[in-house]
Design a protein that fits this description.
Elements (H helix, E strand, L loop, with lengths): L4 H6 L7 E4 L3 E5 L7 E7 L14 H18 L6 E4 L3 H4 L8 E5 L15
Antiparallel strand pairs: 1-2, 2-3, 3-5, 4-5
Bound molecules: guanosine-5'-monophosphate.
Guanosine-5'-monophosphate binds next to strand 2.
Length: 120
């Protein structure tokens, strides 16, 4: 797998506004926020897409969700609520091929993300 911008952030080769870090994951603010609170939780292990998550990654991906809630609490948005999203490949809107959990909060978010009438 080729190196992504997130590997550079993990290795501190480029700066990021880091909110949480331990041996398994990193959480940092998204450079182009789509909500008043928008941060990313990434594994330090480079996994390209959610299609590439293996049995051995299951605990890691669950942990990413726990860290999302911990950081959301730090922002004071956990009780009001937040949205977690993992985009996969082209139709999912993925642009960085190192899995990441978007955490969006700070106002009521729209739903659904796809507007066309699916009933026809
Ligand atoms: P995707 O489109 O792959 O689901 O999300 C990638 C996210 O990474 C985007 O929301 C984008 O703004 C964010 N991003 C891309 N490059 C950087 C960067 O260099 N620093 C930070 N903090 N976020 C980035």
């Amino acid at each position: 797998m080729s190196e992504t911008i997130f590997t550079k952030i993990i290795n501190k080769e480029i700066p990021a506004d880091i909110l949480f870090e331990d041996e398994r994951v990193l959480a940092f603010k998204d450079i182009s926020p789509q909500a008043p609170v928008h941060f990313l939780v990434i594994p330090k292990k480079a996994i390209a897409t959610t299609n590439d998550i293996t049995l051995e990654d299951e605990a890691l991906v669950g942990y990413m969700h726990r860290v999302a809630a911990i950081v959301a609490k730090d922002f004071g948005v956990a009780e009001q609520g937040f949205r977690t999203v993992m985009n996969c490949n082209q139709d999912g809107g993925q642009t960085v091929y190192h899995i990441h959990l978007h955490v969006l909060a700070g106002k009521a978010l729209g739903w659904p993300p796809y507007q066309e009438n699916l009933k026809s």
